[in-house]
Automatic annotation (TrEMBL), chain A:
Organism: Salix purpurea (Purple osier willow)
PANTHER family associated with the record: DNA REPLICATION COMPLEX GINS PROTEIN SLD5 (PTHR21206:SF0), SLD5 PROTEIN (PTHR21206)
Family: Belongs to the GINS4/SLD5 family.
Protein name according to UniProt: DNA replication complex GINS protein SLD5
GO cellular component, one term: GINS complex
TrEMBL record, chain B:
Subcellular location, principal: nucleus
Protein name from the UniProt record: DNA replication complex GINS protein PSF2
Source lineage: Eukaryota, Viridiplantae, Streptophyta, Embryophyta, Tracheophyta
Limits of the GINS subunit domain: 76-168
Compartments reported by the entry: Nucleus
Domain DNA replication complex GINS protein PSF2 N-terminal: 14-71
Length: 220, 208
């Protein structure tokens, strides 16, 4: 038993050290695309990828200068393009989500902390612009009690005009290892008790939120 | 702005699935000599003529297009294996184990590496038959949705992607109706997802 456990620990370790940054970025991109809410920004990963991309771009110029064979140059260019696509798409999906749930993100600390510094700045400027635009065009002309962006009227108890992400959407996921009931939130233990590894599962997003944050599940 | 409030942003396009498939490793036999390639995504090479090497699919296709290598057919794409898989698919209700990206990989190889596939027409027709049988199974399985969590063994990327939107919405509706105590707020009109026509059975109306 002990040898089996240590073998699987070794497997995990080997997988960890052999996973390239591009693999990690691809996983982050896939998870971000599939999840209905915005996930934690992978700042160190993005930083490393940016540095590698800059390095690759510098190498491009060196190749051009040294007349390296065009085949090699074009292959390096392809690799660069692929990595750039992943990075750009990742950032773009996050920006789309921020725009979609703009006011909610700024209101909720949990989401606000998942954004990078630039994304937070973007969100604030966006709300300012959107707010002043809506004010000028519509809200200023409405009767006094209805002028808020966030509430339908002053009598509303909470910000009922702010849409929240739908956590009950269904996503497809795959577990990287066997998950028992402990890995899920206790309140969902009626709904989901275990998940085998490598089995495609359609499941309500909020049930798998916790294992997703712990990196035990991948969205597909 | 980064994009319109696109409710389909959670869907992967076929091109994106193909992009992910292109990272699968394939074996090639180069006919040139080349130094190691130190890519951001990993190091490959050095390449020596007539010595097999493992590279990602996109690299293999790029080299193939420039006539610098031949691609060795993956094990699972041999005529014997595919015939066996097709038989098994027809005989059982479950899905046979196939590589997750088998559709994309086979399509890319047919398009770009025709000469490297012996019996290409046979292989192609087998793959298409397998696709048809599997998709038919997907459709029949869809009719049997009841539980809130559905598992599928051995489904491939393209098949999953095609039904993702519909199945997700259907399961969501099942879940909502199962848990009637949800507040009406979840039905906000602000949630601007387009209505996808579903084949759920219609409510029986009272006869007039």
């Amino acid at each position: 038993m002990a040898t089996e456990e240590s073998a699987s620990v070794m497997d995990d370790y080997e997988m960890l050290i052999s996973t390239t940054d591009v693999e990690l970025l691809k996983r982050a991109w896939r998870n971000e695309k599939a999840a209905p809410e915005i996930l934690q920004f992978e700042s160190s990963l993005v930083q490393r990828i940016k540095e590698q991309i800059e390095l690759a771009e510098q190498n491009e110029e060196i190749f051009e200068a040294n007349n390296i064979e065009p085949l090699t140059v074009s292959l390096y260019q392809m690799d660069l393009d692929r990595t750039q696509f992943l990075l750009r798409s990742y950032l773009r999906v996050r920006l789309q989500k921020i725009e979609k749930y703009l006011f909610y993100v700024l209101k909720t600390d949990e989401y606000l902390n998942r954004l990078s510094k630039q994304e937070q700045m973007f969100a604030r400027r966006c709300t300012d612009d959107l707010g002043s635009h809506l004010d000028e065009t519509v809200l200023a002309k409405l009767p006094d009690n209805y002028r808020s962006i966030l509430k339908q009227s002053i009598t509303s108890e909470e910000d009922d005009m702010v849409p929240a992400p739908r956590l009950d959407t269904f996503v497809i996921c795959k577990a990287k290892q066997y998950l028992s009931g402990l890995d899920f939130e206790p309140e969902y233990s009626m709904e989901i008790t275990e998940m085998e590894r490598d089995l495609l599962t359609f499941v309500c997003y909020k049930f798998v939120k916790k294992p997703l944050e712990n990196g035990k599940i991948d969205l597909v | 702005m980064a994009g319109q409030s696109d409710s389909t942003m959670s869907l992967f396009s076929s091109e994106e699935i193909e992009f992910m498939a292109e990272d699968e490793m394939t074996e090639i036999v180069p006919n040139l000599r080349m130094d190691s390639l130190n890519f951001i995504c990993g190091d490959y090479g050095p390449f020596l003529p007539q010595l097999a090497a493992q590279v990602p699919l996109w690299l293999a296709l790029a080299l193939k297009k420039r006539g610098k290598c031949t691609i060795r057919l993956p094990q699972w794409m041999s005529v014997e294996n595919l015939t066996r898989v097709l038989e098994a698919e027809r005989d059982s209700h479950a899905f046979q184990p196939l590589p997750f990206h088998y559709i994309e990989i086979s399509r890319l190889l047919f398009d770009h590496a025709r000469e490297d596939i012996p019996d290409m027409y046979m292989v192609r027709s087998l793959v298409e038959d397998i696709r048809d049988v599997r998709f038919h199974k997907v459709e029949t399985n869809l009719e049997k949705f009841t539980a809130s969590t559905v598992t599928w063994k051995n489904m491939s990327a393209m098949e999953v992607n095609v039904i993702r939107a519909f199945a997700g919405r259907a399961l969501q509706a099942f879940y909502k109706h199962d848990n009637e105590q949800q507040t009406p707020d979840t039905d906000r009109a602000l949630d601007k997802q387009p209505q996808i026509p579903t084949d759920r059975p219609k409510r029986n109306l009272k006869p007039r």
